[in-house]
Amino acid sequence: VHLVESGGGxxxxxxxxxLSCAASGFTFRRYAMSWVRQAPGKGPEWVSAxxxxxxxxxxxxxxxxxxxxxxxxxxxxxxxxxxxxxxxxTALYYCAGEMIISYSHYPHEYDYWGQGTQVTxxx
Length: 123
Description:
The protein is mostly beta strands. Helices cover 0% and strands 49% of the residues.
């Protein structure tokens, strides 16, 4: 099983990034997917989740209105569009998969999780 995140980088405050998570080795369309992040020196934080079909999405209050989660089951890929980025969004972003959305902050509590992609928001 592989979940490979990409698209991270350094951006100025107010900027945008689009993260991708490529899945393989399991039936992607049968799993709800989430993004979890961990900032330096802080505990992990659940960011967003999407159901198997993509019709229901959920967001932490800290990112609501700025981030958009989506998925393409034909491409086995999860996305996170991040706009109006703030310095406090700086973190390592993980994608994670589970049968039922748990809103867990901890990547290891999911069935599958990736290695993460770094997002740094700084002027």
